[in-house]
Amino acid sequence: MKRLLSGIKPTGDLTLGNYIGALKHFNEMQKEYETFVFVADLHALTIYNDPKVLHKKIRDLIAVYLACGLDPKYTTLFIQSENVYHANLSWVFECNTYMGEAARMTQFKEKSKNNENVTVGLFTYPMLMASDILLYDADVVPVGIDQKQHVELARNIAERFNNKYGETFKIPEPVIPKTGAKIYDLQDPTKKMSKSDDNNKGCIILLEDPEIARKKIMSAVTDSEMSIKFDPEHKPGVSNLLTIYSSLKNISIQDAEKEFEGSNYGTFKKRVADVVVELLNNLQSKYKEVIEGDTIDKILDESNKKVREIAKSKVEEVFTKVGVGR
Ligand code: ATP
Ligand code: LTN
């Protein structure tokens, strides 16, 4: 069985963008692949987080993974920092990545622009991400479009390492969803819906009151026409709502367009809001069950053993090949 691996940072509040671009796909793919999904808590440290809040967000993310349908029968759920080998391998990759290729990462360029508090960690973050992926010989890595470049860097690192030191790593493939690879902000549909954004009127938060989410959809920016057509360039707001609707209903954009032929924007938004509210209601009731129950630690303890074993043998192989240790 092929392996799937992906992770999400426990910073900010999880959004509908995270759900449609990532969580939903992990859930749909878990039976087809041997699946590893983790909380990328070391990645969260590239910016300052209140430690107490970070601890809570890590647990919350595990609960959201379970609430979204990730099933420990199929998916190994774990916390990155609980497996020390991620950071070990990352160092080796930092020493096998050129400054020029790391400096080309779009996310680094964007996040470091006009920012005086850029850490070295933000720069080396893609090498840690490469180690997350390559430690487990992942075949596929489902991510939103903004992470594709990082998975491509992981491929380059793997190929270079294999050429230099002999066959060691599988070359992973990024898997980008056909629809919903990028969900946009409801107030500014040219910008990604992001949990690190301060203005959250344009952002649906998975654990927020569903009625607040409904209001956000009802006041989403559209345009002054009256046609419900998918045209991201000229009609970014309407196209974004069509993407959200078709992803959550599991139908094509064309079918969604047909469904709304002749409808006005008010009716359209109400129907989009209904599917979003239904998703949040389901997700939140499962989340509550999990976070109040006692299964989280059992699941993590079990998967911990498994991931450490896999990672230990990979890191030992790498250390021997590069010539460190006895
Ligand atoms: P930030 O927006 O805070 O920089 P992020 O949400 O991109 O962070 P993660 O939470 O780690 O970072 O992302 C988890 C996954 O969700 C990634 O695969 C990412 O591509 C996807 N994702 C995040 N936002 C969106 C979005 N608006 N549309 C589609 N996918 C998204
Ligand atoms: N960098 C990703 C989160 C992430 C990840 C990974 C995704 C860390 N390690 C490994 C896939 C595979 C992000 O910011 N969204």
Describe this protein's structure.
Helix 8 links the parallel strand 4 and strand 5. The protein is mainly α. The mean pLDDT is 95. It has a 3-stranded parallel beta sheet. Strands 4-5 form a two-stranded parallel ribbon. It is 54% helix and 7% strand. The chain starts with a strand and ends with a helix. The protein is built from 13 helices and 5 strands. The protein is globular and about 70 Å long. It folds into 2 domains: 207 residues, HUPs (Rossmann fold); 89 residues, Tyrosyl-Transfer RNA Synthetase (Orthogonal Bundle). The structure holds adenosine-5'-triphosphate and L-tryptophanamide. L-tryptophanamide (LTN) binds next to strand 1 and helix 7. L-tryptophanamide binds next to strand 1 and helix 7.
